[in-house]
Amino acid sequence: MIDVQQAYQQAITFAAAKHAAINQLIPGTNLPYVVHISNVAMEILIAGAVTPGFNLSFAVQVALLHDVLEDTDTTFEEVEHTFGRDVADAVTALTKNDALDKAEKMADSLTRIKALSCEVWSVKLADRITNLQKPPAHWSISKIREYKSEADIILQTLAGGNTYLENRLKIKIAAYALHAGA
Question: Hey, which bits of 14-94 come out as E strands?
Fold first, then answer.
């Protein structure tokens, strides 16, 4: 088994290069996308420390790679060759299927996530925790409410996956609701 530091370094180097190649920034900011994926990994590192039996090396890799298929030209085969089938399958589950209507994408992804290990559930929870920052200035109140509603669905659907991250997400949703006037 790969140690956590080696897993982190391998995955962040790969993902940072892929996201930087398309000059991807965190939406609504001038921050490079590597900040987002590092924050997701930070949530996983802390959750892993308090979650018995948690496969931290696997979860850290998935956290750092969770958007490479969705946002870059990276292929499943490339992820599989570099990180193994389990990581590639997890990243695929966390990737929205663009062939579906917008309304179906979340449910489809959550169904695929739920078919995998609790570490994959944890990455989805950590991703939404990280995304529940101050909304971009151009978002309408209805968009903010929709995003909060999606967070509620994620929390409900992935209940039982990781108690620590579920509690973190509840707190973030409550704070985010203030932006939605809810």
Answer: none
Buried b (16+ CB within 10 A) or exposed e, 15-29: bbebbeeeebebeee
Judge whether 70 counts as a catalytic residue. yes
71 flagged as catalytic: yes
Q: Out of 71, 80, 86, 152, which one is annotated catalytic?
A: 71
- pLDDT tens-digit map of 120-166: 999 999 999 999 988 888 889 999 999 999 999 999 999 999 999 99
Catalytic residue selected from 70, 78, 80, 152: 70
Is 73:155 a contact under the CB 8 Å cutoff?
A: no
Specify the CATH superfamily of domain 4-177.
Hypothetical protein af1432 (1.10.3210.10)
Q: Which two tokens stand for residue 176?
A: 């985010």
